[in-house]
Amino acid sequence: MGMGLVTPVAMGIALGLPHRKVIALDGDGSMILGLGTLTTLGTYLPPNLIVIVLDNESYFSCTARQGGESLPTATAERTDLAAMARGAGIKNSVTVTNLEQAEKTLNQALESKEMWFIVAKTEKAQELVPRPRMDGDECKYRFVRFIEKLENKEILPAEGHAQEFAKRPHL
Length: 171
Hints:
Elements: H1 6-16, E1 22-27, H2 28-33, H3 36-44, E2 49-55, H4 60-65, H5 81-87, E3 93-96, H6 99-111, E4 116-121, H7 136-151, H8 158-167
């Protein structure tokens, strides 16, 4: 549901809540779908944002759901997302290939006052993670209400939205 949207949404949150450290957990297929996001990140460089791209070099989740084999992403060949991020102006762009590197880099990013883009090479998934039993609207409202509670401020007024939400068919 969020393919291509995770990092842009996280960037918006980081810009809107500069006093909070924001971590985006994105996938290689999602990042490839939204490569233009890299230029926007490189332009604004929110210092409180860490983007972690979990790179299993495949579109496993969508093809496996349809009963097929996983399809490789461009990162399975020569595409280097960290190099592309550096080219977009994100100087703290790295690829990690083991747990020790990942832990060291993440600790460095958490202590930093600069934006980080971390590509974490992972194993290919062996099985699907079940999809949540909620639609995009429900996810949005749950997330917004969480941020409202966390920040003690209203983002979306409750009146009007609840009635519109109730009219929509749900899974």
